[in-house]
Amino acid sequence: MSQTITFGEVLMRISPRGNRKFIQSNTVEFYFGGTELNVGISIANLGGNVKHITCISDDFIGNTALAYLNKFDLDTTAIVRSNRPLGVYFLEVGAVMRPSSISYNRSHSAFSEIKPSMVDWEKSLADGSWFHWTGITPALSKGSFETLKEGLLLARKKGMCVSADPTYRSGLWNYGVDPKEALTELLHCSTIFIGGINEMNEVLGTDFGYSNDEFIEASKLLIEKFPSIVKVFDKIRTSINSSWHKIRARMWNGKKFCETEDFDITHIVDRIGTGDAFAAGLIYGLQHYDGDTKDTKAMQFASAACALKHTYVGDVNYTTIDEVLRIVDGNVTGRFNR
Amino acid sequence: MSQTITFGEVLMRISPRGNRKFIQSNTVEFYFGGTELNVGISIANLGGNVKHITCISDDFIGNTALAYLNKFDLDTTAIVRSNRPLGVYFLEVGAVMRPSSISYNRSHSAFSEIKPSMVDWEKSLADGSWFHWTGITPALSKGSFETLKEGLLLARKKGMCVSADPTYRSGLWNYGVDPKEALTELLHCSTIFIGGINEMNEVLGTDFGYSNDEFIEASKLLIEKFPSIVKVFDKIRTSINSSWHKIRARMWNGKKFCETEDFDITHIVDRIGTGDAFAAGLIYGLQHYDGDTKDTKAMQFASAACALKHTYVGDVNYTTIDEVLRIVDGNVTGRFNR
Amino acid sequence: MSQTITFGEVLMRISPRGNRKFIQSNTVEFYFGGTELNVGISIANLGGNVKHITCISDDFIGNTALAYLNKFDLDTTAIVRSNRPLGVYFLEVGAVMRPSSISYNRSHSAFSEIKPSMVDWEKSLADGSWFHWTGITPALSKGSFETLKEGLLLARKKGMCVSADPTYRSGLWNYGVDPKEALTELLHCSTIFIGGINEMNEVLGTDFGYSNDEFIEASKLLIEKFPSIVKVFDKIRTSINSSWHKIRARMWNGKKFCETEDFDITHIVDRIGTGDAFAAGLIYGLQHYDGDTKDTKAMQFASAACALKHTYVGDVNYTTIDEVLRIVDGNVTGRFNR
Amino acid sequence: MSQTITFGEVLMRISPRGNRKFIQSNTVEFYFGGTELNVGISIANLGGNVKHITCISDDFIGNTALAYLNKFDLDTTAIVRSNRPLGVYFLEVGAVMRPSSISYNRSHSAFSEIKPSMVDWEKSLADGSWFHWTGITPALSKGSFETLKEGLLLARKKGMCVSADPTYRSGLWNYGVDPKEALTELLHCSTIFIGGINEMNEVLGTDFGYSNDEFIEASKLLIEKFPSIVKVFDKIRTSINSSWHKIRARMWNGKKFCETEDFDITHIVDRIGTGDAFAAGLIYGLQHYDGDTKDTKAMQFASAACALKHTYVGDVNYTTIDEVLRIVDGNVTGRFNR
Amino acid sequence: MSQTITFGEVLMRISPRGNRKFIQSNTVEFYFGGTELNVGISIANLGGNVKHITCISDDFIGNTALAYLNKFDLDTTAIVRSNRPLGVYFLEVGAVMRPSSISYNRSHSAFSEIKPSMVDWEKSLADGSWFHWTGITPALSKGSFETLKEGLLLARKKGMCVSADPTYRSGLWNYGVDPKEALTELLHCSTIFIGGINEMNEVLGTDFGYSNDEFIEASKLLIEKFPSIVKVFDKIRTSINSSWHKIRARMWNGKKFCETEDFDITHIVDRIGTGDAFAAGLIYGLQHYDGDTKDTKAMQFASAACALKHTYVGDVNYTTIDEVLRIVDGNVTGRFNR
Amino acid sequence: MSQTITFGEVLMRISPRGNRKFIQSNTVEFYFGGTELNVGISIANLGGNVKHITCISDDFIGNTALAYLNKFDLDTTAIVRSNRPLGVYFLEVGAVMRPSSISYNRSHSAFSEIKPSMVDWEKSLADGSWFHWTGITPALSKGSFETLKEGLLLARKKGMCVSADPTYRSGLWNYGVDPKEALTELLHCSTIFIGGINEMNEVLGTDFGYSNDEFIEASKLLIEKFPSIVKVFDKIRTSINSSWHKIRARMWNGKKFCETEDFDITHIVDRIGTGDAFAAGLIYGLQHYDGDTKDTKAMQFASAACALKHTYVGDVNYTTIDEVLRIVDGNVTGRFNR
Questions:
Q1: What confidence score (pLDDT) does residue C1 get?
Q2: A-chain residues within 8 Å CB-CB of D26?
Q3: Counting Cβ atoms within 10 Å, is residue A80 exposed (0-12), middle (13-18) or buried (19+)?
Q4: What's the CA gap between C278 and A311, in Å, rounded?
Q5: Alpha-carbon Rg of chain B, whole angstroms?
Q6: Where residue F306 falls among pLDDT bands split at 50, 70, 90?
Q7: Would F245 be classed as within a structural domain?
Q8: Other CB atoms within 10 Å distance of the CB of residue D49
Q9: CATH number of the CATH domain containing D198
Q10: Which intervals hold domain Carbohydrate kinase PfkB (chains A, B, C, D, E, F) (predicted)?
């Protein structure tokens, strides 16, 4: 059995309905998310076999999170419990020119106090063929960085594919490690890079611009510096405003450059987790397509999955394989399924 | 008193709020609908006198459906009750490129087991001047087909106008009758055809394309084959995506062709029942306009009513005559009514 | 791994909030339930390993039901899908002297059309040590009766414990089999009888009254007639009104009679599934207690679980082992857990 | 066709859910009510043929009120519209020892500005056999008093039964008429008196106490003073607190005294409109029972209907004839209807 | 301490969620608003010190309104209470080509019966430096007109800035005063005019068109006729439909003309109170900007505040100074705040 | 102006509606609370002038908390902001024999990191005449203990009344200070002791039982050991189950013992904050009653306020002085306020 492994924090997201601020509300909705979990659930919803590894609180909130993961049929057997609370984030969703706002309560959460000794990586990766990580995990705490590193080293030793989404968020990384150095260590265990110019400049210390030519150049340099990496995938978002975006993707797979057309997302329902939906679609695509056009098709699949996520409220992409393929086939008019 | 008669199944529609899937929800909203009922309520909301004939369950769900029909002041005195359950459909509303999905639980419903002996057509049509039917009813069961046929034969005998919306839905028609033959019988009792190229091709066995010229040609052939039919009205939908459509209409009334401008429906609230709103507007228009421009005006009225339905959640068009006329007069900017 | 197996229909329950009727509502809540499933989830919530076997619709409603079962970490791998709809029931919850009302839409559901060939019993029972069935399943259709019978025969052959809750509901059993005969066949495969005087009179053709003495007499006769049965457990409900019940239990285990004190449930939240909670508590108790007092303790555990279910909305008992044990220990004052 | 006529104000009731105050809420529920309307709908829900006469606003709120009345299949053809707003009342529901609070916004409402010329009583009462009025209507304005008086005079002339519920509410009666005089005029047109010691003392100018003996004495005096009145019915409420009441009834029908047992309403859902439910049950009972025990049976029916109303949220008694008869038959344990 | 004073009615707004009509709903949301209050709260949310003066009902609805104002930290110490009800308005929000509809119940409200003697203006304006009024207040009743006039005379005597938004609404002004004369009196106490061609034509008795040249000419004439007025600001709305507007502003400050670019508001959440948000932004801007570009910057600030209000449900602009400045700086893409 | 000062953490409470667990929910309600804040708001709702001092997060959650406090017209001018998140607690409300459960996320909250230097006590207490503290604050962190101590020392120096509710919660006190020593220091600054046998035993190191005699003895010893304390008030709760409690109070004021009758709270809406409501009622009573019966009356007032809090959802007692006095006067039947 060939499992995709995701490792990262599970956060409880709390937000008022629609476009309300908290100050306008007394009822709120809650979901569970977290960038790596979003990728995991997204792949499971497409039909993949996914194990998510994390540390959650040993209380009724943790139980609720666990039931949420089980609902999507994730393998939750490697999850550990702690007496620290689950991390929480509060979200106010914007509209038109008003941006969304997020406030985190995660700095002493169950996950941020994880330690390498708490995860039995040998057992956890027993059935694993793919490992996905992001730049959020090493940014949270020394323990989460080291636990991840231990997992990645074993994953590479076992020859697993490792996809990296080294998103750099400057508000994190408060525990005394240099982000560039930490990410460098982790990228040396990775085979697929999911990120854009900003992420490449961050780890390369370069200053490339956003053109396709510079993207190719940066990708080549990245692959040179991190020889385990073989492909680079980038998702580009154009924001007309908070409610209307356009999405496209491009890639350099070491041999050729390719890019997709824009998806025009005229009425955004929820923008959270759309990058994770891209990563999930890409991983699923790379696992299932074959032949010469494999990378291109995977990227198209990923773009469609990403576009569809904008129509689901919550962190999670509820989209199914049929919905994605229909979009990939060019059917974006949304005619009824009966 | 001159009554419009509608005959068809009443379904309970159950759907999560907004664009949610069932898997994301634990609260749902319910409405009652059904294509012929939607037409009937729509006409009643415009001020018409409407009797709806159907068979509903003899339980609290049937009572709730009945109260729903009464609320719109429909004449419900000819409704019969059965110990079979009311049909149900589940709807997940899409957004942008994600299509809406429907799942039906209607195959052994109260209505599908209706028999001609259960409706007293003489009494039911006593005050009737117009009868509207659709292609859904004959597709459900032998009993519903035959009950409808009996009603239509009497309606024509009494000289009533009969409007037909012979929507062909291939997922139905499972009881062993040939759709084309059944529809042919029923169209021979009809005077107004509401449908497009697909519907005409279905009953004519032809292969016309979508151009205006082919529409005219098809209409002429239809009228030739079904001499009771005197006018053909067609509603054309252009889908930018699930959330953004354009609507226009065209007609051939035996003498002239006419078409309307597009209505641009940029933010769809609910797309269900919009075709029924067109039919209702058309019937109401044909009943109330006079003179040379009667057909054109009725079609414009119908298009405006159809466009407005996209702004109401539920199967039913809550629009009033004032709202429609304001749109017909070209006022689509939506300035306040105080 | 020792699994408890439950087999039976999964129904979608739809009901207005609080004590509303449908006619007062336009928003409703939905849950999934079904008597055997309720037992299964209840055991899983207590910490048991449970596999539920059923047939559900192959649409988004079926997917939602499946996610619901997964949420409680049931083993859903033996579930089959069908193109028939999931059964639905509508519930209006009463209050004080107003009774609750139920209306079913299940007669042609996915489950009612199950056939023995659709379930691979050998594989499904591979890890099974306990099988629980109820009188609802054989009452639905010939297929469901025969599929159950096949499963029970194998279960007994494998030496599994088989608990029977042969609830007799006269509104069902419409497919031409004699209830008494069918239940007799199934009881001959059973080891634990969960039921009261009514159920025993039904299968014995007797007319015992409700006293403890007659309960003992009836139990002895039952055990005589069905030698595989070794213990009889009965739950007794005293209704002050719809909102206030008292619950107690009694048993005859072949050797001794025992009964519990009344639990006084002064403010009922939801009465559905409380009998199933009793059965689940009993099974769990019989699986975990030892020694002389095993049966008595299991019955006390079952009564407490049953009482607690009255405080949870929905079909399912969300109660945990800690909550039950606290009640068993006599702590019914509901002081805070911090 | 024999119609029951009710005449009185339709109010929009707005209240937070459950036991919340407005200051705790930003979502509220709305219903329509009014004491005479509540009686009318209650009778219609029992199966009676009811016409409600009133004056409502000519705006979308009035349309919504009208649809609400139609929903219960009331005859709304005699309702008049005005450019004044519909009356509104705000309700905060108490609990335990906290009382409910009401705030009215009705003093210049559509109904309070009704004039005798606005109602065509001849036409309105054409099919009428029973007229019900309450002491609220004459208390609102000169116009409403005079319009009611005109209707009652005609009702008596036509020999209709007239039931009076002359509830005296001192906060009203602000338009310069003496309540006692006005009620005296109206009671001289009435045949059934629904009220207790307080109401009799008010119109008789007496000071009777609450004992059964004094009730009989007061009733005799009332019948002596108002010879058209033939029967007196009284409903007695004992409040343990806001959430728990007991209800019983007594009567003097000119020949004999009779009283019912207490109904113990342990978990009140909504107390508004319970007196109206008693009146409605009484009228329905008097219309349908025969023989010597007619009055007693009607009173028992009325008490049961009143008790059941406490289980429905809103002003309206949703109870059906079956529910009432079941209670009358002594079945108050609230066992399931399947 | 330098306070901005607003004076005007507080209304309770009641509306169904989303785009529903009342006839589709049984749950509604409520807010408090009123044009001058909206301006006051908007300024407070930007950080200003605001006192709102009004008369509200002395019941739990009035208490709720008061708590609402306190929530935004308004100075409510000058508010008076009355035994009349608070004014109410019902709102149905349109969509696309369907307009929103409003129905008022305010004609005998607490505020409309205010009298000059009820407000202690000396004390109320003690800390005041700015007074804002609109054309709604003098339109309601003689008392509200005269109370306002008294306040404005004192405000001018104290040398306060007085901004006037003389919105003319013909449905009001029913108490026998000539609108033009009343507004003229009040404008002679004002220093800033916030209004467009329609408002200027109304008070000047002219017939200017909408071009910028005519706007300048009209402004010059206005300033000539009302010498206390020194600046004119106008907000221009272009409605594509109910859901999509464009907003821009222009001004004449006695010396120069200036106008802003259009803001494109593609997905309107709530259009109520957007004019008030413009006035509030303008007042705040004029109070905080300095130098040559003060007026232009204030107008840009006002336009951005107005545009942002379209994204908040309710009458009130919840926008903060940071959100406005971000838009003024040209950032309308709505990227996340983390 | 004579202000009551409260000092303590503001927590966001998040809980599912009714009796649901989180695992059953996806919508939750939020409130703000905290034991000292609850006392403060309760006093403000009774009409008192209250200043609450605390440290809250400097984000939109903190803004929402601030608006919540402002809503009740608390003086919030001494509140400080921090870049740490606001504390959160999750609550699942039980029913009948099921207890409520709480899970905290407060250990690194904004308040727990408060330091004495952050509060300007001289300025904050300028108008203060009463200071209320509880045992939660010193239990949270060294900073909160020391900040409180500094405030209390000043309060006593100024001769303010100081009420102490030294609730001992063993789950807190994790920062290395001995609870008994810390509470001893703080009690030496206090004048009124609100607590029972457990609290007295904790600080006295004794082992008194629950009888009235032992209560008096313990109180005498307490007053001997803490000479600043002059009165002891105790609230006694008898739990029938989670939904039904009885409440009474007793006191020793140095001269006499007195106790109240039980309040029977048959249908609890929300039990959180009821102890705080007792303290608030007591403080308000002691501030407003005079003469010999002052203490007894204050205790009766406190008991009634406490009983009423059980009818309000949320942490806060929304009860008004009129509601309390009505109960004190013996009116617990909850008849309507119109």
A1: 55
A2: 24-26
A3: middle
A4: 43
A5: 19
A6: very high
A7: no
A8: 16
A9: 3.40.1190.20
A10: 5-315
Nearest neighbour of F102 by CB, restricted to C311, C323, C337: C337
Asked if residues F15 and F273 have their Cβ atoms less than 8 Å apart, the reply is: no
Which DSSP string corresponds to A207-238?
---SSHHHHHHHHHHHHHHSTT--EEEEEEEE
Which residues of D fall within a CB distance of 8 Å from E14? 14, 28, 30
pLDDT mean over A19-48: 97
Burial of D185 (0-12, 13-18, 19+ CB in 10 A): middle
For the stretch A176-222, pLDDT in tens is 999 999 999 999 999 999 999 999 999 999 999 999 999 999 999 99
Q: Any residues with CB less than 8 A from the CB of C63 and at least 6 apart, and which?
A: B22, B23
Q: Does this model's pTM top 0.90?
A: yes
pLDDT tens, position by position, E170-211: 889 999 999 999 999 999 999 999 999 999 999 999 999 999
- The answer to whether B252 touches B231, Cβ cutoff 8 Å, is yes
Where does residue F224 rank: exposed (0-12), middle (13-18), buried (19+ CB within 10 A)?
A: exposed
d(CA B213, CA B232): 14
Buried-state track A187-219, b at ≥16 Cβ within 10 A, e below 16: bebbbbbbbbbebbbbbbeeebeeeeebbbbbb
Are A8 and A131 in contact, with CB atoms under 8 Å apart?
Answer: no
Output the six-digit token pair for F93. 């409300």
Q: pLDDT tens digits, residue range C248-306? A: 999 999 999 999 999 999 999 999 999 999 999 999 999 999 999 999 999 999 999 99
Is A336 a member of any domain? no
For F218-232, the pLDDT digits (tens) are: 999 999 999 999 999
Q: How many CA atoms are closer than 13 Å to the CA of A306, on its beta-carbon side? A: 28
Beta strands in C108-243 (DSSP E): 128-134, 161-165, 192-194, 231-241
Query: CB within 8 A of E255, min separation 6: which ones?
Result: none
| Phi, psi of B300, rounded to the nearest 5 degrees | -65, -40
Q: Closest Cα to residue F314, out of F267, F265, F270?
A: F270
Domain with F72 in it: 3-233
Nearest Cβ partner of F14 from A14, A31, A108? A14
Residues A128-159 have pLDDT tens digits of 999 999 999 999 999 999 999 999 999 999 99
Residue F327 lies inside a defined structural domain of this protein: no
Q: Where are the alpha helices (DSSP H) in chain D?
A: 35-45, 60-71, 121-124, 136-140, 142-157, 179-187, 197-204, 212-225, 274-288, 294-309, 321-328
CA dist B50 → D64, E13, E23, F41 (Å): 19, 35, 19, 57
Q: In whole angstroms, what is the distance from residue E106 CA to residue D84 CA? A: 10
HSE value, Cβ hemisphere, 13 Å, CA-based, for E266: 20
Which residues of chain C does D268 touch, with a Cβ-Cβ cutoff of 8 Å?
96
Candidates F25, F61, F104; nearest CB to A22: F61
Residue B49 phi/psi, 5° resolution? Answer: -100, 115
Nearest CA in chain E to F76: E73
B254 backbone φψ class: left, alpha, beta (φ>0; ψ -120 to 50): left
B277 and B305 Cβ atoms separated by less than 8 Å: yes
- pLDDT mean across residues, chain B: 96
Examine residue E245 and state whether it is found in any structural domain, yes or no: yes
Q: Provide φ and ψ at F232, rounded to 5°.
A: -125, 125
Give the amino acid at E73.
D
Q: Do D70 and B68 touch (CB under 8 A)?
A: no
- Taking CB atoms and an 8 Å limit, are F61 and A90 in contact across chains? yes
Number of domains making up chain E: 1
Residue of E nearest to C25 (CA): E26
Residue E318 and residue A23 in contact, taking contact as beta carbons nearer than 8 Å? yes
- In tens, the pLDDT along D313-338 reads 999 999 999 999 999 998 888 777 77
